[in-house]
Amino acid sequence: MRRALAALVGLVYAFTGETHAQTVDKIPEPYEMARTLQVLQAQITEGNGPAVGAQRALLAEMEKRFLAAAPATWQDVRNGRAAVIYTLSGGNPVVMRHLASLDPRPQIDEDLALGALAYIEGRHKEAREHLMKLNARALPPSLGGQIALVQAGLIAQDDLKRAIALLDDARLLMPGTLVDEAALRREVFMVAQAGDIERFEYLSGHYLRRFNNSVYAPDFRQRFATALTRLNLAETSGHFQRLRALLDASDTDNRRATFLHVARSATIHGKIETARLAAAQAESLSMLGSSDGVRARLYGAAAGIVTEDFLRHSDDLNVTNRRQLTEADNALLDAAQSTAAAIRYWPSIEGERQDIPALRADKARADWATDLMQRADADLKIAQKLLQEAPTK
User: Fold this and answer.
1) Rounded CA separation 192/196 (Å)
2) Is the pLDDT of residue 132 over 90?
3) Would strands 353-355 and 345-347 be described as parallel, antiparallel, or unpaired?
4) Which of 79, 82, 118, 312 lies 20 to 30 Å (CA to CA) from residue 140?
5) Averaged pLDDT for residues 308-325
6) What is the CA radius of gyration of the chain?
């Protein structure tokens, strides 16, 4: 805890320009602590991992100080709003319950206080009754953006169009903050759900350019790959080139990670061409012998076993180094090898498995067919002819 707080103090000094001598004897007001919290959250959007732990430490410190603050502290409306910001940032709901018991009552809008408390406690119907009355644009931006973000989540299932508009408000009110990052990340998938392909591509590129290093970017890339696959946006070479252009703004590591997510998702969903193209891109961005390279070859081979190049991809599956794969990818390898075995072998009459020679690119040749297969084909043609010539009543 002390290490996290020390890191936090350093961040605060860096952003405010204050010195230790200026702040050592000063007890910060709740609104000042809320401002510090939002500065710290902005660091999370830039990929500062220690800031996540420092945020938890600061929330714990805010809880302690908010509960110990004199009732008069909460007569300042800025401090009342700070309590709402703290609550909606994942703070302990006991703070808001404590404030509701004070006399005189804190200077907090009742709908704000009750709505924030209901939301953080998972009572979303009650949260809607209070928070949806509010106009986020009429609030101070540092609070309004957070309210708009919460409002969007509360109505997304019932009114997708309005939810998207509220996310736009959240981004406009608090640019460059964690609220901005979260709103953009959620809006990408809402517009995909609404079927707005052009806006999906635009907002995805916007996120990858601005928040590529966010602590939450790996989750975004995974969900982006799934959405991309379901929307069939990369199933043709033309669309895939648009995907490549979309990722050009990212560095090599992030491009490789995104292509790996796309290749895996496409393989699982049976989007063969997307899987092969994305796997090839991921492999070209991977170091020789690396785990990412092994994963890329796995996805490409798993997709390739249903193509005419079956034998090469089947061999690739058989030489895959399982020790470099996760448990989930080992399960995918098992499924791919099982599918390859079903394609490679044909059951005989006795139930034994006989290896069928390789299918050649020249489809005109049928030298892979066994005598039994040829006789069966001839018998089927005779039966079909007899059925066609049979009289009908």
Assistant:
1) 6
2) yes
3) antiparallel
4) 118
5) 90
6) 29
Residue burial 246-284, b: 16+ Cβ < 10 Å; e: rest: bbeebeeebbbbbbbbbbbbbbbeebbbbbbbbbbbbbe
The encoded tokens of residue 164 equal: 């998207």
Q: Which of 224, 218, 211 is nearest to 41 (CA)?
A: 211
Strands in 4-67 per DSSP E: none
Closest residue by Cα to residue 276 from 250, 325, 309, 230: 309
Residue 81 has pLDDT above 90, yes or no: yes
Could you give the CA distance from residue 187 to residue 355 in angstroms, rounded to a whole number? 51
Of the listed ranges 51-55, 170-174, 229-233, the one predicted with least confidence: 229-233
Looking at the predicted structure, is the pLDDT value of residue 360 above 50? no
Cα(273)–Cα(239) distance, rounded to whole angstroms? 11
CA distances from 278 to 188, 207, 262 (A): 21, 20, 6
The angle subtended at Cα 17 by Cα 11 and Cα 20, nearest 5°, is 75
Question: What pLDDT is recorded for position 238?
Answer: 66
For 123, the token pair is 């009572």
pLDDT of residue 6: 55
Average pLDDT over residues 235-252: 74
Question: How is residue 347 annotated by DSSP?
Answer: E
Q: Mean pLDDT, to the nearest integer, of 13-24?
A: 45
Other Cβ atoms within 10 Å of 6 Cβ, number: 12
* Distance between first and last Cα of the chain: 88
- What average pLDDT is seen over the chain? 84
The two three-digit tokens of residue 30, written as one number? 């709740």
Residues 282, 292 contacting (CB under 8 angstroms): yes
Q: What are phi and psi for residue 19, nearest 5 degrees?
A: -100, 165
Summarize pLDDT for 295-306 with one digit per residue, the tens: 999 999 999 998
The pTM of this model reads 0.73
pLDDT given for residue 150 in this prediction: 97
327-344 and 310-318 helices, crossing angle to 10°: 140
